[in-house]
């Protein structure tokens, strides 16, 4: 940060930032509080609701951690001095950007901070599914297990073809990791990456998603959720995949038509699925996807590492300080 910026920040009263709660499943981490309080005057939702008459004028930022507090129209109307909404993580599909921008409020997110951890969970799911790690664990700990069956086989990812749909930061990091596993890499993206990027990971562009679907042993979804990508993978697309292929979703549940996926798994149209995301989250207990042996599900943990979460929080603070001072913000979201 430039000196002038540091000077401005040091001189002024800490900007008031609205958070949901401290701690618990919906709150900012207690470990982060010391750092946060050095830079921001934190106001919890509960404090805000009790003292709206004073705080409506003061709050300049919403520190939106795991989607909370939500930017409702009522809140935006009341926070007359709100300048910025800092969103944790990369996904902004839960925001009504049109509404927010109408209020002249800036929005920032943390795409760089989550890309490695999310790519890691993609690799973890691919390996766990291919090598049946979850089933293996259950066999290993079951009281019914008397001996280990040598016919119990998984699938090797070395030499297999990975098709990445969505070659942004996360998709590219998946490709870097997959290269080290000697996988063949295909990708489909709105725009083709430059030649140097492609060569660095040995990735081949498929302009038509159908070509990728027909060839890949593993299909990894890493797109943003937009109206264009909602239900991008449905019955037709699943039908194009090999019966031996696995679908891995690390972006948003709504990118897949979940009913079509369930059917494809039940009828063995595809071999397996490994999902970090579903809709809703969590799936209702007893949901048919939870009953299938060829499905593994994790609880949306793409960014859930202590390193990523710490970096996200630091970036959000930096962006808030920049935005309230009218300075350029590294990860500003534009419409
Ligand atoms: O950052 C996000 O939006 C994620 O969902 C990471 O898993």
UniProtKB/TrEMBL annotation:
<dbReference type="InterPro" id="IPR029752">
    <property type="entry name" value="D-isomer_DH_CS1"/>
</dbReference>
<dbReference type="GO" id="GO:0005829">
    <property type="term" value="C:cytosol"/>
</dbReference>
<dbReference type="InterPro" id="IPR006139">
    <property type="entry name" value="D-isomer_2_OHA_DH_cat_dom"/>
</dbReference>
<dbReference type="GO" id="GO:0030267">
    <property type="term" value="F:glyoxylate reductase (NADPH) activity"/>
</dbReference>
<keyword id="KW-0560">Oxidoreductase</keyword>
<dbReference type="InterPro" id="IPR036291">
    <property type="entry name" value="NAD(P)-bd_dom_sf"/>
</dbReference>
<dbReference type="InterPro" id="IPR006140">
    <property type="entry name" value="D-isomer_DH_NAD-bd"/>
</dbReference>
<protein>
    <recommendedName>
        <fullName>Glyoxylate reductase/hydroxypyruvate reductase</fullName>
    </recommendedName>
</protein>
<dbReference type="GO" id="GO:0016618">
    <property type="term" value="F:hydroxypyruvate reductase [NAD(P)H] activity"/>
</dbReference>
<dbReference type="InterPro" id="IPR050223">
    <property type="entry name" value="D-isomer_2-hydroxyacid_DH"/>
</dbReference>
<feature type="domain" description="D-isomer specific 2-hydroxyacid dehydrogenase NAD-binding">
    <location>
        <begin position="123"/>
        <end position="302"/>
    </location>
</feature>
<comment type="similarity">
    <text>Belongs to the D-isomer specific 2-hydroxyacid dehydrogenase family.</text>
</comment>
<dbReference type="GO" id="GO:0051287">
    <property type="term" value="F:NAD binding"/>
</dbReference>
<feature type="domain" description="D-isomer specific 2-hydroxyacid dehydrogenase catalytic">
    <location>
        <begin position="30"/>
        <end position="333"/>
    </location>
</feature>
<dbReference type="Pfam" id="PF00389">
    <property type="entry name" value="2-Hacid_dh"/>
</dbReference>
<dbReference type="Pfam" id="PF02826">
    <property type="entry name" value="2-Hacid_dh_C"/>
</dbReference>
């Amino acid at each position: 940060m430039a000196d002038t910026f540091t000077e401005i920040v040091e001189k002024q009263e800490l900007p008031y930032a609205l958070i949901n709660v401290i701690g618990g499943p919906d709150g900012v981490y207690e470990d982060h509080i010391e750092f946060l309080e050095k830079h921001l005057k934190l106001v919890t939702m509960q404090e805000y609701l009790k003292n709206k008459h004073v705080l409506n004028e003061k709050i300049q930022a919403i520190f939106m951690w795991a989607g909370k507090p939500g930017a409702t129209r009522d809140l935006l109307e009341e926070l007359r001095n709100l300048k910025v909404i800092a969103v944790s993580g990369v996904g902004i599909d839960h925001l009504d950007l049109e509404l927010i921008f109408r209020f002249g409020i800036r929005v920032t997110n943390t795409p760089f901070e989550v890309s490695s951890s999310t790519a890691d969970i993609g690799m973890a799911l691919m390996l766990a599914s291919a090598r049946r790690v979850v089933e293996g664990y259950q066999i290993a700990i079951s009281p019914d297990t008397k001996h280990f069956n040598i016919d119990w086989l998984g699938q090797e990812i070395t030499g297999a073809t990975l098709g990445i749909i969505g070659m942004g930061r996360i998709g590219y990091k998946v490709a870097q990791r997959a290269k080290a596993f000697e996988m063949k890499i295909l990708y489909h993206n709105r725009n083709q990456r430059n030649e140097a990027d492609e060569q660095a990971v040995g990735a081949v562009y498929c302009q038509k998603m159908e070509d990728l679907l027909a060839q890949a042993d593993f299909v990894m979804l890493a797109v943003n959720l937009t109206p264009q990508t909602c239900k991008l993978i449905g019955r037709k697309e699943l039908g194009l995949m090999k019966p031996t292929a696995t679908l891995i979703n690390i972006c948003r549940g709504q990118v897949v038509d979940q009913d079509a996926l369930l059917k494809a798994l039940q009828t063995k149209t595809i071999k397996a699925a490994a999902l970090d995301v579903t809709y809703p989250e969590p799936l209702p207990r007893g949901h048919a996807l939870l009953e299938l042996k060829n499905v593994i599900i994790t609880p949306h943990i793409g960014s859930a590492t202590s390193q990523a979460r710490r970096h996200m929080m630091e970036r959000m603070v930096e962006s808030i300080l920049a935005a309230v001072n009218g300075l350029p913000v590294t990860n500003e979201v534009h419409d």
